[in-house]
């Protein structure tokens, strides 16, 4: 018999204790393409992935709008808490409040903390994700009754994964106005102010268990590696330092809010540390390539450039840490979820 992984062990334990103690009744998700389980399918934007080969390893081989070949980290985290294996997108009409009572996603691919970032691809800005959440609250109260709904909202785990697009889509783009308005440190502070405001608004709406995910080492994303002409394939260390410094400030903000807000538990999702550790030891995780994605050439393809007509797409995505030039493969998302459960999210079990 094969030994259980930590994530499988948690699932087993949750299965055994769930009938008597459901400490997290639902997973509620906000953010960008790292967390969007299909909301962008229902808005007018170019930031979509509801076509093959996206989703080819998802159940039924369906392209759900997730920017990967299968499930995302939030889906695996939901499963680890004994909840459904997928977190449904709020705008997906095939789900109803019975489904959303156990998990719901408001995230929108290509969005950011900064409204100017969401405007680039006409996606759902973060404040509008919060508006959808308020609408959801009202529907939940109608469905469960006021008392039970308030308890569900209080005990649910809120995951926020956003921020990368503010830099790679917005601040560092050729046409960016933000880079002329702010130094990179000032812009980080501007984003942190928005993050704090968002967390405070969530708290005032009843959230008490919050996982705030940092920014990954964005200079090591395949798309950014491909732009390094002098040192082909190397990480952009300037971008990595920006992400690292932002995360240091984010952790400081989390520590302060945990002291200032009553009966709240906010944890830091260390996506930076997880990805760096995996990339530095990628063969031990069974990966053969971390420099390019599986889809197409793996250096620039994402969204509509990653399509079924590209004959260069790999046959086995599990050998690649990244699915396209920006987004992790399902296997890497599974590793991320496992590590987050092991390092921070276990406190909510």
Structure notes:
It is a single chain. With 349 residues, this protein is an alpha/beta fold. It is 41% helix and 9% strand. The protein is built from 13 helices and 7 strands. A 5-stranded parallel β-sheet has the order 2-1-3-4-5, sandwiched between helices. It has a two-stranded parallel sheet with strand order 6-7. It is globular and about 60 Å long. The chain starts with 5 loop residues before the first helix and ends in a 6-residue tail after the last helix.
Keywords:
349 residues, globular, alpha/beta, 5-stranded parallel β-sheet, two-stranded parallel sheet
Provide a quick synopsis of the model.
The protein is an alpha/beta fold and 349 residues long.
- Unreliable spans are 15-21
**What is the number of strand segments?**
7
Strand order of the largest sheet: 2-1-3-4-5
> Structural class given helices, strands, pairing?
alpha/beta
Number of helical runs? 13
CA-based gyration radius: 19 Å
Topology readout:
Blueprint: H1 6-17, E1 27-31, H2 73-80, H3 97-100, E2 103-105, H4 115-120, H5 126-144, H6 146-155, E3 157-161, H7 164-171, H8 178-181, H9 184-204, E4 209-213, H10 222-225, H11 237-260, E5 265-269, H12 271-280, E6 289-293, E7 320-322, H13 330-343
Parallel strand pairs: 1-2, 1-3, 3-4, 4-5, 6-7
Helix pairs in contact: 2-13, 5-6, 9-11
């Amino acid at each position: 018999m094969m030994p259980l992984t930590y994530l499988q062990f948690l699932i087993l334990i949750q299965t055994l204790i769930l009938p008597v103690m459901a400490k997290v009744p639902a997973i509620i998700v906000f953010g960008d393409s790292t967390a969007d389980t299909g909301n962008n399918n229902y808005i007018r934007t170019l930031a979509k992935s509801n076509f093959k080969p996206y989703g080819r390893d998802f159940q039924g081989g369906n392209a759900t709008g997730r920017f990967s070949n299968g499930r995302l980290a939030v889906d695996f985290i939901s499963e680890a808490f004994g909840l459904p294996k997928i977190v449904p997108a709020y705008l997906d009409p095939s789900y109803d409040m019975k489904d959303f009572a156990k998990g719901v996603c408001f995230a929108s691919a290509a969005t950011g903390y900064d409204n100017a970032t969401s405007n680039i691809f006409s996606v759902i800005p973060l404040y509008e994700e919060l508006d959808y959440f308020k609408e959801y609250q009202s529907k939940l109260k109608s469905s469960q009754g006021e008392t039970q709904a308030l308890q569900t909202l209080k005990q649910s785990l809120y995951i926020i994964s956003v921020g990368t697009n503010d830099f790679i889509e917005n601040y560092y783009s050729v046409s960016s106005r933000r880079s002329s308005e702010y130094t990179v440190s000032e812009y980080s502070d501007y984003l942190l102010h928005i993050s704090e405001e968002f967390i405070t608004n969530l708290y005032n709406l009843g959230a008490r268990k919050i996982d705030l995910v940092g920014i990954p080492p964005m200079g090591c994303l395949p798309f950014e590696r491909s732009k390094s002409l002098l040192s082909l394939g190397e990480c952009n260390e300037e971008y990595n330092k920006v992400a690292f410094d932002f995360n240091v400030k984010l952790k400081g903000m989390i520590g302060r809010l945990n002291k200032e807000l009553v009966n709240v538990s906010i944890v830091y999702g260390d996506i930076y540390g997880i990805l760096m550790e995996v990339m530095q030891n990628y063969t031990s995780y069974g990966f053969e390539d971390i420099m390019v994605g599986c889809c197409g050439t793996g250096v620039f393809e994402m969204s509509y450039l990653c399509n079924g007509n590209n004959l260069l797409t790999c046959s086995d995505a599990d050998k690649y840490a990244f699915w396209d030039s920006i987004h992790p493969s399902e296997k890497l998302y599974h590793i991320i979820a496992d590590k987050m459960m092991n390092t921070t999210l276990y406190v909510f079990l």
